[in-house]
Amino acid sequence: MANIKRVVFFVSDSTGITAETFGHSLLTQFEHIDFDIRVLRYVDNMEKAKQACQAIENVVASEPQRPLVFSTLIDSAVRDLIAASGGVWFDLFDTFISPLQRELHQSPSHTTGRTHGVIDDSDYTARIDAINFTMANDDGISTRHYPEADIVLVGVSRTGKTPTCLYLALHYGVYAANYPLTEDDLLETRLPVGLKAYRDKLFGLTISADRLHRIRSQRRPASHYASLGQCRLEISQAEDLFHSSQIPALNTTTMSVEEIATTIMSRTGLAALSALA
Questions:
Q1: Do 93 and 132 share a domain, yes or no?
Q2: Most distant pair of Cα atoms in the chain: their distance
Q3: How far apart are CA 169 and CA 272, in angstroms?
Q4: pLDDT in tens, the chain (277 residues)
Q5: Judgement on whether residues 234 and 193 belong to the same structural domain of the protein
Q6: Whole-number Cα distances in Å, 274 to 126, 151, 250, 266
Q7: Domain for residue 273, yes or no?
Q8: What is the span of the domain harbouring residue 184?
């Protein structure tokens, strides 16, 4: 049976990150529907609201089912206009703001753009420093800065080390480095010399061979590097290394970068910057 298709709008008066994150989390619970995602950002005045309405109304007129509209809009006039455009309306802020207002006995400020603003200059600087550290210590080019690292991710090529390190730095202010296990490293069947001093900081990433084969085939199709046999061999060797060296490891096969990062934070006990957590 073919999957159902449904158009989804994420509408925000700012970056749209909150609407996307919350909306995606809800939509992932419905596996047999193909969602056509459309993000309308910075809808912060009536002119832009009218344009957003037109986009939604066009879908209402052309599709057999109404689009889903997830909103984090603050301005009531903008919100009311778009809510009347014919889509199925989900107000992610109002759902929680009203009961919070009743419980806290205080009216909200209704200020746009607060969700991802700079909360504290020192935390902002620390986050930038963490990103710079991660970029400078990507792919095991050098291990000389590892004493400053909070964590060092290890694994074979294309297991998600780099994006996870960047997510850890950006969202949690973690100094994350990564070290790719090469064929030479894996043939040794023991921890690479350059990593021995940092054993307590190491965390392994692994993945199913089939998934790794598909990922590598997109990068280098029909290559030895991407072959299923090579993927199986490298994964097996890497997992043996993690076990023999007592390195905690995580299988990333079905996980998003966000899930990988948060799982690592939980399992390692790493502390996030308070303003970023």
A1: no
A2: 66
A3: 9
A4: 567 899 999 999 988 888 898 898 899 899 889 999 999 999 999 999 999 999 999 999 999 999 999 999 999 999 999 999 999 999 988 888 888 888 988 887 666 555 555 455 677 788 899 999 999 999 888 899 999 999 999 999 999 999 999 999 988 999 999 999 999 999 887 899 999 999 999 999 999 999 999 999 999 999 999 999 999 999 999 999 999 999 999 999 999 999 999 999 999 999 876 444 4
A5: yes
A6: 11, 18, 25, 15
A7: no
A8: 121-268
CATH number of the domain encompassing residue 40: 3.40.50
Q: For residues 131 and 248, what is the distance between their CA atoms, to the nearest angstrom?
A: 24
The phi and psi torsions of 179 (rounded to 5 degrees) equal -130, 115
Tally the C-alpha atoms within 13 A of residue 218's C-alpha that lie toward its C-beta: 6
Q: Say how many domains are in the chain.
A: 2
Residues 133 and 169: their CA atoms lie apart, in Å, by: 8
Q: Do 160 and 225 fall within a single domain?
A: yes
**Does 114 fall in a domain?**
no
Same domain as 191, residue 80: no
In a domain, 109, yes or no: no
Burial, 93: exposed, middle or buried (Cβ in 10 Å; 0-12, 13-18, 19+)? buried
Between CA 102 and CA 106 the distance in angstroms is 7
